Known about the structure:
Blueprint: H1 3-25, E1 30-35, H2 38-41, H3 43-58, E2 62-67, H4 70-79, E3 86-87, E4 90-91, H5 95-118, E5 123-127, E6 134-141, E7 144-155, H6 158-165, E8 169-173, E9 175-177, E10 183-186, H7 188-198, E11 203-208, E12 213-214, E13 223-224, E14 226-228, H8 229-237, H9 245-257, E15 262-267, H10 273-279, E16 286-289
Amino acid sequence: MRETEMKQVLQKAEVLIEALPYIQKFNRKIIVVKYGGSAMSNEELQENVIKDVTLLKLVGFKPIIVHGGGKEISRWVGKVGKEAQFVNGLRVTDDETMEIAEMVLSRVNKHLVTMVQGLGVKAVGVSGKDGGLLTVEKKYADGQDIGYVGEVTQVNPKLLFDLLEKDFLPIVAPIGLDEKFQTYNINADDAACAIAKAVNAQKLAFLTDIEGLYKDINDKSTFISRLTVSQAAQLMEDGLIGGGMLPKLSNCISAIRNGVNRVHILDGRIAHCLLLEIFTNHGIGTAIILDEEGESL
């Protein structure tokens, strides 16, 4: 074997050895992956994400995927001659838009199931309507009625536990029912956070369209690879976090404070970002941790 080939083989071995303690630590632990953003609209990235989650399953993790589909929903809304409207990042959802959203999310859900099963892992696609998984109430945006947008009020995780026990990989579409059995669209971040809390997940990973958190978004040198819940709350209080990251970070804080061990914000546009974050010593995104694990920014 040539020297260069030997070096490549040894590098692969080193990667596997680096991953070993993480595989041991999280064996049989639940990890919730919120999958959305550009990683869903690019076929190659989509395949990479599904391969990552499938590998997690095969090495002993218990992954649950909660997916979005916002860009695809907007595309189909446009096809029927409507214009997508948003208030504070939430989709204004009338009867027709709700029907389109459920159709699109169901289609996305079964596509992801097909991809996972194509890699040799059993998967089951469900929505929050199945088994009473997600109960919601109407969500308002600064007091404004935005239609059939739901706020999760209760999670019944029995269906997910049953699927995990039977060695299935659950894939969840963010649709729920209120107490009168009206269908509502749910922000996928909110759904993932609620599910992660209910199943007492060891990890919750958000795949996003940014690298992670910055103290100053305009200064790449201020990237934060790790911060505690208290530090995250302080960033919000100081007004250093804005836009779509504000509700996402709020969800992260809520998850940690309600039993999730660690939350990761990752750039889903980077190939195999999940594996790089979970199985390497330094990771590539932002990890939010318990205060007692803390270290300074």
